[in-house]
Amino acid sequence: MIKYAVFEIGGKQYKILPKIPVEVDLQEGENITSKLLMLVDDDKVKLGKPYLDEKLKINKLEDIKKKKIRVAKFHAKANYRKVTGSRKKLTRILLEP
């Protein structure tokens, strides 16, 4: 049984535990492909050089949006005010045991 795994998606590394959802950058489509770096089973630790050949069963749960970030620009005495913002889009994934 897998205790945890470390994998790479979109140039970022994530640690994932079975049955605990993880939020990663937005992934298009239903199939999620990742590169497995490290896998920890009961007492065995497998390290890749740099990646392992094994595949994980990763299920895509949903696409979500984080809370909006508001950025305000202001120049005194110049009558300049500008407000912009962004909302990060993420994908919630789950590792099947």
Tally of helical runs:
0
- Tell me, briefly, the overall form: elongated
Query: Which spans have pLDDT < 50 for at least 5 consecutive residues?
Result: none
Give me the secondary-structure category. Answer: mainly beta
**Rg from Cα:** 19 Å
Spatial strand arrangement across the major sheet: 2-1-4-5
> Kindly, what is the distance between the CA atoms of the first and last residues, rounded to a whole number of angstroms?
7 Å
Percent strand equals over 45%
GO cellular component, one term: ribonucleoprotein complex
Pfam families: Ribosomal_L21p
Function: This protein binds to 23S rRNA in the presence of protein L20.
Family: Belongs to the bacterial ribosomal protein bL21 family.
Question: What is the strand and helix layout of this fold?
Answer:
Blueprint: E1 4-9, E2 12-16, E3 22-25, E4 35-40, E5 45-47, E6 58-65, E7 69-75, E8 80-86, E9 89-95
Antiparallel strand pairs: 1-2, 1-4, 3-9, 4-5, 6-9, 7-8
Family: Belongs to the bacterial ribosomal protein bL21 family.
InterPro entries: bL21-like, bL21-like_sf, Ribosomal_bL21
GO molecular function, one term: structural constituent of ribosome
Description:
This protein has 97 residues and is mostly beta strands. The radius of gyration is 19 Å and the shape is elongated. The chain has no helices and nine strands. The model has no long low-confidence stretch (mean pLDDT 94). The strands form three sheets. A four-stranded antiparallel sheet has the order 2-1-4-5, with no helix packed on it. Strands 3-9-6 form a three-stranded antiparallel sheet, with no helix packed on it. The chain has one domain (4-95). The chain has strands spanning 4-9, 12-16, 22-25, 35-40, 45-47, 58-65, 69-75, 80-86, 89-95.
